[in-house]
Amino acid sequence: LSATEKFIPYLEQMVETYEANIGLLGIVPVLIKSGGSVDQYILDEARKEFGDDLLNSTIKLRERIKRFDVQGITEEDTHDKEALKLFNNLTMELIERVEG
Questions:
Q1: 51: CATH
Q2: Which UniProt keywords are given for this protein, alphabetically ordered (predicted)?
Q3: pTM for the model
């Protein structure tokens, strides 16, 4: 939440200073722990502050995702497939926003 609060003014400054053609497609909640009360609180606060700019898709905190960096992305088992499903859902939501 705090990183987003700092990043959006930076984007606005880029637009003003350099007349950059930048638009916000959405804010992706990342490193969310399933069932984490603090994470849920932060998501609720982010929804209040950013509204529809906050994407519905979330990238949850998973060991498998961290492993992809070391071993590469695979689709060998259900854990791989579940982790990849998070990114697939995000991709589909982004495509909908671009086309919508």
A1: 3.40.50.300
A2: Plasmid
A3: 0.82
